[in-house]
Amino acid sequence: MLEEVYSFCEEKMQGSCDHLLSNFRTLRTGRVTTKILDNVRVDNYGSMTPIDQAASVLATDATTITISPWDKTMLNVIEKAIMKADIGVNPNNNGVEIKLFFPPMTVDQRHDTAKKAKGMADDAKVGVRNDRKKANDKIKVLEKDKLITADESKVAQDKVQKITDKYIVKIDESLRSKEQDILTV
Fold first, then answer.
1. What is the predicted pLDDT for the residue at 172?
2. Does residue 68 sit in helix, strand or coil?
3. pTM beyond 0.85
4. C-alpha closest to that of 124 among 179, 182, 174, 160
5. pLDDT class for 185, splitting at 50, 70, 90?
């Protein structure tokens, strides 16, 4: 019974960490990656789809992303979606493809991006703490139903806290690493 609670706890907390790393990939560092467009959705014949499912998206060099739609009628739709997403650049549409030219990041932009990363990490920590609460609630229900003793409940809650601490440290390490990437010129 308690092993199920522990595995539930680990699984959910690992999911929070994975989600954080996924969010971190959308942040711009010194070198441009196509992941910055992961949250951009385009109206592709009535359904909102990720931009990479409607076009070829390539980072042609350290400061340029080239988007070549498979259907050339999608050029204007993709261009509007990028402008709406507010990723920090204006798309250049040449009638065949869209190019995004990213200027070097200023110190202020780097600090703003680092703040966004910290906010994402804080959200992940909140998720981990919510998972801890759910796990502890399950343990308390087991104790209330007399399936475990009060001592076993206390030990189980301590173990859940240790699992929580492990994932909080993991999130902090990920944040430090991402901040270093962002702030390094």
1. 95
2. strand
3. no
4. 174
5. low
